Amino acid sequence: MTNSTHFGYQTVAEEEKVHKVAEVFHSVAAKYDVMNDFMSAGLHRVWKAFTIAEAGIRPGFKVLDIAGGTGDLAKAFAKQAGPGGEVWLTDINESMLRVGRDRLLNKGLITPTSLCDAEKLPFPDNYFDRVSVAFGLRNMTHKDVALAEMRRVLKPGGKLLVLEFSKVWEPLKKPYDLYSFSVLPWLGKRVADDADSYRYLAESIRMHPDQETLKAMMQEAGLERVRYFNLTAGVAALHTGIKL
Ligand SMILES: C[S@@+](CC[C@H](N)C(=O)[O-])C[C@H]1O[C@@H](n2cnc3c(N)ncnc32)[C@H](O)[C@@H]1O
């Protein structure tokens, strides 16, 4: 029997979700960075800067960036980990990974890359000092499996960082909904000639677990000292947890 799941507001078979998510990111890859700046008025850079600061990467660290896409986090981590470090840029989507890998190479950063599913990571147990996933968990079919995999590959004492859209502060909900369901698809159409992918973005954010639920899921996956930071009134949140 095929299990069903959500793709935005639609209920679909699990395999169909994987294909639909792949279509979204094949479609947006070339315009992904410019759209991010447009959509968030540059705020995604602030959220990522906060994540990078919380990661506390030191020279020589081994770091895994999951669903790394066009490589914003991996780029910063690779600079901080230095030549003695090992920073992996990984993603399930070839189009996104290609853009990310080329961007890093153009900056003179030669990092290993791997086309892989967060739910089946091709890395040994207890290997990384830090694991990060930014705006990726929302798209995964079995978030519990992916979180368990992230914990598995962390060294004892290592830290997981999950940056994701979250539940916005209630008084901002109406204007945020108006922006998400009217302006976003319009921008998507104008800038990337793709309204549907940005409609999926708005819907998938609404279907994603809120701050407390994600915290409980991380604890369930065996992470300790789990906490979160609301960013821009909860438009996004950074969750962190330690493997003890
Ligand atoms: C919104 S992009 C985020 C890219 C980048 N981390 C950033 O913050 O700009 C989401 C990424 O998640 C990836 N993704 C979706 N499902 C995945 C999975 N199961 N395993 C790994 N990556 C996945 C997509 O291919 C896409 O590149």
TrEMBL record:
Gene Ontology MF term list: 2-methoxy-6-polyprenyl-1,4-benzoquinol methyltransferase activity; demethylmenaquinone methyltransferase activity
Pathway(s): Quinol/quinone metabolism; menaquinone biosynthesis; menaquinol from 1,4-dihydroxy-2-naphthoate: step 2/2; Cofactor biosynthesis; ubiquinone biosynthesis
Gene3D superfamilies (UniProt xref): Vaccinia Virus protein VP39 (3.40.50.150)
Catalytic activity: a 2-methoxy-6-(all-trans-polyprenyl)benzene-1,4-diol + S-adenosyl-L-methionine = a 5-methoxy-2-methyl-3-(all-trans-polyprenyl)benzene-1,4-diol + S-adenosyl-L-homocysteine + H(+); a 2-demethylmenaquinol + S-adenosyl-L-methionine = a menaquinol + S-adenosyl-L-homocysteine + H(+)
CDD domains on file: AdoMet_MTases
E.C. number(s) listed in UniProt: 2.1.1.163, 2.1.1.201
Keyword presence, Signal: no
Amino-acid positions noted as binding S-adenosyl-L-methionine in the UniProt annotation, renumbered to this chain: T70, D91, D117, A118
GO annotation terms (biological process): aerobic respiration; menaquinone biosynthetic process; methylation
Entry keyword Transcription regulation: no
One of the Pfam families matching this protein, by short name: Ubie_methyltran
Stated family: Belongs to the class I-like SAM-binding methyltransferase superfamily. MenG/UbiE family.
Task performed by this protein: Methyltransferase required for the conversion of demethylmenaquinol (DMKH2) to menaquinol (MKH2) and the conversion of 2-polyprenyl-6-methoxy-1,4-benzoquinol (DDMQH2) to 2-polyprenyl-3-methyl-6-methoxy-1,4-benzoquinol (DMQH2).
Protein name (Swiss-Prot/TrEMBL): Ubiquinone/menaquinone biosynthesis C-methyltransferase UbiE
Species this chain originates from: Oxalicibacterium flavum
Lineage of origin: Bacteria, Pseudomonadati, Pseudomonadota, Betaproteobacteria, Burkholderiales
